[in-house]
Structures are given as structure tokens and as C-alpha cells.
Amino acid sequence: MTDVDRPISGRVWKFGDSVDTNQLAGGGLQGATREETLRINCLRGLRPDFTEGVGPGDILVAGHNFGCGSSRQSAVEALRYCGIAAVAAESVARIHGRNSIALALPTFVAPGIADFVEDGDTIEIDHGAGVVRNQRTGGELPLPRLPESVLAIYRAGGLAAVIRTKLAAVGIVAAN
Amino acid sequence: MTGQTIAEKVLGAHSAGGGRVRAGDLIDARVDGLMAINYQWMRATYERIGFPDGPPNVWDPARVFLMNEHVQPPADLDSAIGNYQSKLVANRLGLTHFYESEMGVCHQMMLDYGLVRPGELVLGNDSHTTAHGGINALSTGIGADETAYVWAFGELYLNVPETIKVVLRGAARPYPFGKDVILYLAGVYGDDFAQDKAIEFHGGFAAASDVATRLCIADHAVEVGAAFGVFLADEKTRAYVDERNVERIPWQPVAPDPDARYSRVIEVDCDALGFQVARPFRFDNVAPVDASAGVRIDQARIGSCANGRFEDIEIAARMLEGRHVAPGVRFYVSPASVRVYKQCADAGLISVLLEAGVQVQDPGCMICQTPGIVLNEETCITSTTRNYRGRFGGSRTSEAQIYLAGPATVTAAAIAGEIVDPTEFLR
């Protein structure tokens, strides 16, 4: 069982269309560590109350083209450092979507999600059942299934772990 | 059997599974080259999987191109350490193409050093890797962990995308106009109209335009969501590539079949277009320049993988000859590479810029990032790649106004002190 295989339930932080990677990981304030810098700047420019309010297990819901912009993987890391457990968006920009898979942050394209939830709702993303449930409204939204090859990366814990395993399999590095 | 698009042909030829591929297929693609920039971004990847000294292998030391170009010279300890470690890695693995301390934009360096050619499949850890579509290569951006994967195995899973055919009708312009064309497309069709798709650029304007214009448009394909943005190859492509392909590596251009299947066809009459400006803070918040006329500016920028080429700087110099940057305006110009810088210097352009009050900056990607912060009270017009909130200063400058435009419009604004139609300055 990995994160994408079990239902993920949490409080929703809702954003609009075309949230770009400069908003996710654009710097600005200097934290004590790289992690701290990414955490305190994440989405602050769009929504100043996000940094202090967001907590472990929360879910980010966005409109179209989430994560557009640069290829920076730190955009995914920043969300994780904020405690975000999953992302559900109308659509996800190509590179950010791939980076989310690579770092195994559960990220779903869920058409209709923007109208399905309001900021502050609690939702349950149940990929296994192919549905998102809204606790407040009792509504259910169909959730498209991720391809098996993508699920395999999630289940491995991310692409880096796949690299390690594959290098060991061909004998370039020791198995452990 | 219907015909194939450029993306289907190139990806089919590079599919590890072999055989003909179709839009919608998910394949393991074997790449021709990997552009890996800024090793410090990949360090954490290797540390996470137990390789603190970096990658234990390289798929092909002649086809992984390692460049420390985003931060030259390194301004902080982390970057300096990253550059140092990259040298150890490059030496240990015997990389043929390693650029430790060269200033420049990676995509232009790829072109300048002949590391990418028409018909090739190239990946790189920068979103604007799509730029090489301007010379008929299929190339796109990936993240750091994916880069580590390609570094190790020379392949990566890719979707075979549907293709949008964009027919650009009209004549070439005697000044850079690529930015205006792609901004117009974004303004009309939205900043994700090509999400996960390829775009083929066809038509008279595409054929008549110079390679710099094509590179600008292909570079910005990512700004409308595209995985690839690719032009056909012609004699101009051949001349551009062969002049730089010093290793004389053979290449074959790729054209679509006449009966290739497109998900959408978009036609643009470029002759009917005026100068375009994207207003804060989205690439698709576009209107003709007149809609922004009169907006006072504090800063102007020309440079980047989009508009840092000789043609972009030449138009700025031509417009500034006998003129001066407006009082109170900071105008930064950064050539895209050392080769471009030298070309500009040899043509006397740098002297013109300096006499006009331009701050000429080193080549590199910093022109598109935070140095030269635009404060919340200020306004900038730039021909770099993006006008997102905080692009030039981070989360504390999220109200700084950033307008995007082509180099002629940027230069006119720098002269006038406010956004203005550049037409009169071009006479």
C-alpha cells in the first residue's frame, strides 16, 4: 500500500488556474535552511495566509494548468514541506505533473474538481475506488485512474528509487 | 494506415520497443542527447539513493552535456559547491562535453556547440528545452530526478503526443516578431491550449522567418503547455546547424506525412498582427501594445533563451542609435551566449548600447530571474520568458508589475519611459 492506493482525506486549500512554479518555489524570504525557505515562500505571493495555515495532511485543489512554468522539482518539494498530502486539479502542467510522479507526491487530474469543492472543505481522494468524496456536500466526483506505469513509480516510492533498483539489477551498484 | 506527425516519426524512431507509434502511446524513448544543467539540482537525488559522490555511471559520456550555466559566477556557497562537485563527476565519468564555468543560456550553448541537430530527440532539465524545435529537433524539459534517470539509462518514459498544426501565414518582418506571434496565440487560445501536445509550426511566415524567430517561438511552446514545438527544416536550418556542427555528426530532418493526423489546425494571419504585450501576470493575458500604452516603466530587459540572440540585440541597438534610455529607467541587456556576445561586440552593437545608457549584462539565465529585483512599487517590461508574480524578486515582490513583449517593444519603452508602439522608433 502506498499513498496513491489508500484513500487520502484532508482539508482543502483551493487555488485558481495557472498556478505557476514561481508561486510554488520562487524564493523571496530567506529561511534558515533550504527546506524552510521553500516552505515559507510556497504560495505566499498568491495567498499570504497559506504558509501559517497549511498543515500536514492537507490537500491542494487547483484549476487548470497547475504548476505551469519552469522544470524546477523544488515546486513539488515545497508542497511536501508544507505538509500537502495530495493535489487534485482540473489539469496539471506537463513537467510539474511528471515531477510530482518522480517525487511520489500523489497528484491527480480530476475534471470538475474546481466546482466540486470549496476552500476549507474536507475531501477524500480514493484513487482505488476512482472517486473523490466531499464530506460537506456528500457529493462524489469520478476520478480518472493513473496509468499502471505511473502507479509503479508511485509504489516504488519515486523515480530515484527506481534508478537505484535498476542500477542494481544491471550490476552497476550493489543491491543495497 | 494514415500518415505520421513529426512527433510520431521521431518518437517512433527512438522507441525502445521499436515499431510504429501513435499519439496516445506511452513509450520508453531512447534519447540522442541529455542536457544536464546545474549539477547542484541533482545532488539531492543522488544523495537520496545512496550516492553522495554523485552518479555511479553515465549512459554515454559523449551524449550527456553537463553545464553549470544558470548561476555564473556562483553567488552563493551551495552553487559554488555544486559547480565544484560537477567537475569531480565530469572528470570521474569522462564526460566529453562539460562546461564548468561558461556564462550563457544552456539552450543557446547547445546550439552554439552543435550538440543538437534536426530530427534528434533531446531532453534537458530546463522547461525551455523546447527551443530546439526551432531547428527541427524534438526536445523538451524534464525534472531533476528524470534527468538522473536519463543520465543513467539514456531513456525515459514519454507520451506520444497528439499534434496541433499551427499555420503561420504571412511575410517575414524586418525585426524580431516571434514573441508577438506566440503571445498572440496564447492570448487567443490560452496558456494551456497545447497541454501535453506537440505543435508543428507551418506556413509562409514560418518558412520566411530566420532561425532566431523560430527558436523564440519553439522556446515559448512550453508557455502554452506543449511538450514539443517544432518547425520544419530548410536551407536556413541547414546553414545554421552545419556552421555549428563541428563534430560533423550526420543528421536527417524530419517532416510530417502529407496525411498526418492533427488534433487541431490553427491558422494565423501574421501580416494582420501588430505588436503584442502580455500584461501581468500570465503569458496569455495578451492584448495589442496599444492596450498598455502609457504605462510608466522602471525597468526593461532583453535576453534569455527566448530573445537573447543577435537579432534581438541588433534591433535594440538599431533603435537606440542616437537615442538614450529614458531617465529613471534601468535597461538590462544580456546576450544569450558568449558566441552571441562576441558577435554583438564584433558588429559594434555593444558600444551603441553602452553609449545609450544600457546596462549590458553577462550572458546567462540570470536575466530571466531575480537579479535586478523589481519592487512592488515598480513596473518592468521584458522580452525574457515569463511574467509570473515575483519572477524578479520572489514572494515578497508579488505585486511588482511585469509585462512581456518582443525586443522592439521593450526597447521603445526603455526610450520613451513608458509602454508605446515601437513602430515610429523602427523607421
Provide an overview of this structure.
The complex is a heterodimer of chains A (176) and B (427). Chain A has 8 helices and 7 strands; from the N terminus they run βαααβαβαβαβββαα. Chain A has helices at 21-25, 34-41, 50-53, 74-81, 94-102, 113-116, 148-156, 159-169, and strands spanning 8-14, 59-62, 86-89, 107-109, 122-126, 131-134, 140-142. In chain A, strand 2, helix 4 (74-81) and strand 3 form a beta-alpha-beta unit. Chain B is α/β, with parallel strands linked by helices. Chain B has 14 helices and 18 strands. In chain B, the strands form 4 sheets. In chain B, strands 13-12-18-17-14-15-16 form a 7-stranded mixed β-sheet, sandwiched between helices. In chain B, a hairpin with a 7-residue loop joins strand 12 and strand 13 (286-288). The radius of gyration of chain B is 21 Å and the shape is globular. The model of chain B has no long low-confidence stretch (mean pLDDT 97). Classes of the chains: A alpha/beta (176), B alpha/beta (427). Chains A and B meet through helix 5 and helix 8 of A and helix 2 and helix 5 of B.
CATH domain topology of chain A:
Aconitase, domain 4
Which two protein chains have the largest interface (Cβ within 8 Å of the partner's Cβ), and how many residues from each?
A-B, 42 and 46 residues
Secondary-structure-based class of chain A equals alpha/beta
Oligomer: heterodimer
Helix proportion of chain B? 25-40%
Category from helices, strands and their pairing of chain B: alpha/beta
Considering the protein shown, what is the CATH homologous superfamily of chain A? Aconitase, domain 4
Globular, elongated, flat, extended or rod-shaped: what is the shape of chain B?
A: globular
Give the SSE string of chain A.
EHHHEHEHEHEEEHH
Q: In total, how many beta strands of chain B?
A: 18
Strand order of the largest sheet of chain B: 13-12-18-17-14-15-16
Q: How much helicity do the residues of chain A have? A: 25-40%
- H/I helix tally of chain B: 14
Spatial extent as radius of gyration of chain A: 16 Å
What would CATH call the homologous superfamily of the largest domain in chain B? Answer: Aconitase, domain 3
